[in-house]
Q: What sequence folds into this?
DNA sequence: GTCTATAGACGGATAGAC
DNA sequence: GTCTATCCGTCTATAGAC
């Protein structure tokens, strides 16, 4: 939220338009957070920005377009959030600490706005799927996770899948069963330990098999 | 599906009623599977059993009551499915094999009916939450998982939470990203190995700390 | 660009005849 | 118990005046 819309031009009229679009998206986030993703209606969004529902069509061609913009917006917020946490890590932090901090940051990001979590990570809006362009933001995020794991020495694609499953599971349980607490957040260190131990022993196994096949 | 309704009496008239209720629920499962959980409307359910929508009110007091019945129904089907898999295990199967087979069975159960998965495990129906009675079926399932883990030597409540997160993560990734494939199903052995190794080392740690505190 | 008015569809639920 | 008819609400989206 508050992030400038990337596609806007520089003329004054286009600037105003981008500001209005931004205001509409911010209002939509507020509606979703307060009333739930289900009651995210054009009427209610418009009400928050002092408009009537049909006026929104001057800024977005459809409700799906608004949802697409929210989806991309949310993923960009996640990127920013994780980048900030990564930057704040001690330069010599261990892989264990890096992964655990990032995973905790991810969970907290979801807890900060359950409606956003549902929009980004569960397909919770009946009849809507992110467009291909919006989905690109999600893929970019996935790509970064892969880069990050490679950075701490995890390169096997199977391990990447494993990691997404571990993360998704912690987040899902936390959000479903203890949205304001830390019941699964507290399991992050366990999960990271398990995961790194597993990848290390897999690496040893495959190194051994490479050696044996000489 | 096809499971008799538990609350029916034995008189002929009550038997017919129970059969009609059963037919309505089966029709509802078919509608959900074919048209999606979102378009599970009373009109469409009624159409499948050759009725008009208002006639359903003779059998269920509201749409929510139908969803409650489906929810409980689905959990009972899960119980049956898992019990059958557990019964088919070799008597001397290892904890590793037992857990892995059960987890695979769970994932396959979800894959067999994505709409059922969404009803039971994601809160996918806008404006509906299972009633307390229906939710009891879910708690019973959770209780059984705890029993099962205790049976293979895992008794720490934190490990139970860990286990639910691992399962939920595998299922969620499989259903969201590869509903007809086995991309995360193939990771089950890895996950079970990780988990059992982790619980074993935790048990060793706490045994040591008990000993030290004497 | 913004409004009012309204189309057009779909939903759950109820009234009352049979 | 089942029907027809209907109420009343929701929603997205469009037409057309200003």
A:
């Amino acid at each position: 939220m508050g992030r400038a819309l990337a596609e806007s031009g520089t003329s004054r009229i286009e600037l105003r338009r981008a500001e209005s679009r931004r205001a509409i998206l911010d209002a939509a986030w507020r509606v979703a957070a307060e009333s739930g993703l289900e009651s995210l209606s054009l009427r209610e969004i418009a009400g928050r920005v002092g408009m009537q529902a049909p006026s929104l069509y001057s800024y977005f061609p459809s409700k799906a377009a608004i949802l697409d913009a929210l989806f991309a917006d949310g993923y960009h917020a996640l990127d920013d959030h994780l980048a900030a946490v990564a930057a704040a890590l001690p330069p010599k932090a261990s892989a264990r600490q890096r992964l655990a901090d990032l995973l905790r940051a991810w969970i907290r990001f979801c807890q900060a706005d359950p409606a956003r979590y549902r929009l980004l990570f569960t397909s919770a809006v009946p009849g809507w799927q992110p467009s291909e362009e919006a989905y690109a933001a999600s893929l970019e995020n996935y790509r970064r996770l892969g880069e990050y794991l490679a950075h701490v020495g995890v390169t096997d694609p199977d391990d990447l899948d494993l990691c997404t499953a571990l993360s998704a599971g912690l987040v899902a349980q936390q959000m479903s069963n203890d949205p304001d607490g830390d019941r699964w957040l507290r399991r992050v260190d366990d999960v990271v330990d398990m995961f790194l131990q597993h990848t290390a022993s897999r690496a040893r196994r495959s190194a051994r098999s490479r050696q044996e096949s000489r």
